[in-house]
Amino acid sequence: MGSITIHPKKIANFELKELIGTGGMANIYKGLQLSLDRPVALKILHHHLTLNKNFIMRFENEAKKAAMLHHENIVSIIDYGHVDGEYFIAMEYIEGQSLKEMMTRMKRLPLEIALLICHEVTKGLKYAHSHGLIHRDIKPANIMLSTDGRIMITDFGIAKTFNDMSITDTGQMVGSPAYMSPEQAASRPIDHRCDIFSLGIVLYEIITGEKPFKGETYQEMITSIISSKPVKPSLMRIDVTPSIENIIMKVLSKNIDSRYQDADELGAELSSELKRYVIPSSKKLIAGFLKNPIRTAERLRVGRISKHMESALYLVNLGHG
Q1: Are 157 and 25 in contact (CB under 8 A)?
Q2: Which one of the listed residues 137, 155, 195, 262 is annotated catalytic?
Q3: What is the set of domains in the chain, with CATH numbers?
Q4: pTM value?
Q5: Catalytic: 84?
Q6: Has residue 239 got a pLDDT over 70?
């Protein structure tokens, strides 16, 4: 959704300026932290949910758990509180777009951009997982691309510690259906590897322009995630290399033990793949892509062609052509 200017409203040390998003748990506003005169994003819990103790516990849990995380690939929590029955979390405001918004401008991203985005996300996940947190809702809407070229994970709204099962009861699925892991969809016990699978769905989608698992209804989607095998990316996009396809298919393994076992392992594979491309500055590339995706994509395409021609000429000079 686009931003909607609202009549300024004060809550605690913050002033609400614009409604910039809404979700199942809360509305998101762009606001101003009055004491420091800086922009912030404020998540305010939907009023009817404040009457539900379970939701209040989840909301407070988000603030406390996410506040522990301080990493360049994770949106920081600034403050938490409640005033006159309104519960809020104040977060770092990111100037830019979500990956979901970017995908409305370009359905299939350049391979370099897709790999780079997911590589940066693995860094944030590695850090969060090392602190005992699982995101459980990795999806394009929760991945931010900032105008200064950073890639950041946002909304640890349903994050949980590995050993804390007290709030979300066993059998209650939490997460966006299209990006769930098979173990989430089947209401089986989960660990950090569910985030790896969800990121694999994101990688598949931003490379092929299609989700790997489909369904007209919620149940059809869940069934597809549990039992369907995705179409190979190389059949949907001609420039997908065997090595990229292998990464995608491994990360989407329904057998949790056959998947990449942690974000660091997946990140290493993506890093190795990125070395095949000429990327002098990752942040500059992302910033440029955010500003003008079509122009950046064309420049990358021309660069790849030039590199291939140079390689072919080199082989000819060696007598291999």
Answers
A1: yes
A2: 137
A3: 4-92 (3.30.200.20), 97-274 (1.10.510.10)
A4: 0.88
A5: no
A6: yes
